[in-house]
């Protein structure tokens, strides 16, 4: 079963605010030097070109809220970011799963390379590499994992909600 969070597990002694870093922000922070000679190669995943600026801002804010509430172990807040009718998981099972994760682990997720790869009026797909750091509650041993995810958001009552998550672990 894939959970909405992609079963990412991460540890947190302190609650942190998470800022989503988009691919464009990362490109702007990478300056070319004399060592970078030759043509630049495009990123393997491209941002959708048809996203209105206000929708891009709303989508990234919804994604950011989803991550933030997860990292704060705010179960109700986290569940409020999810569609009432998700397609890749069952809502009641997700709630039980996340509640168990919050109670038994110290966990943080940190999105990297966030790119809106597909956009339609009421649906969008966001690609991200999600770094997860997790440990059992009270344990000092931490495990880090990086996964690639596609998170599908759909509009419900004018707001973007997570509808599906597909994750693949990377090495």
From TrEMBL:
Checking InterPro entries in the record gives: NTF2-like_dom_sf, SnoaL-like
Please give the residue ranges the record annotates as the region Disordered: 1-49
Superkingdom of source: Bacteria
The annotated regions of Low complexity compositional bias extend over 21-40
Membrane-spanning parts: none
Where in this chain does the record put each SnoaL-like domain? 61-162
Basic and acidic residues bias spans? 1-19
Pfam families per record: SnoaL_3
| Gene3D superfamilies for this protein | 3.10.450.50
Protein name as catalogued: SnoaL-like domain-containing protein
């Amino acid at each position: 079963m894939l959970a909405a969070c992609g079963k990412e597990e991460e540890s947190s002694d302190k609650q942190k605010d998470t800022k989503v870093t988009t691919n464009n922000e990362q490109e702007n922070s990478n300056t070319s030097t004399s060592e970078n000679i030759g043509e630049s190669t495009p990123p393997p995943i491209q941002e959708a070109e048809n996203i209105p600026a206000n929708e891009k801002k709303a989508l990234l804010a919804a994604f950011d809220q989803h991550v933030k509430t997860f990292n704060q172990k705010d179960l109700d807040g986290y569940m409020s970011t999810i569609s009432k009718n998700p397609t890749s998981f069952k809502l009641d099972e997700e709630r039980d799963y996340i509640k168990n994760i919050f109670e038994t682990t110290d966990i943080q997720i940190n999105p990297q390379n966030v790119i809106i790869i597909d956009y339609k009026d009421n649906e969008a797909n966001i690609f991200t590499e999600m770094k997860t750091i997790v440990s059992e509650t009270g344990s000092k041993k931490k495990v880090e994992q990086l996964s690639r995810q596609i998170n599908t958001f759909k509009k419900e009552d004018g707001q973007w909600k997570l509808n599906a998550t597909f994750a693949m672990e990377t090495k």
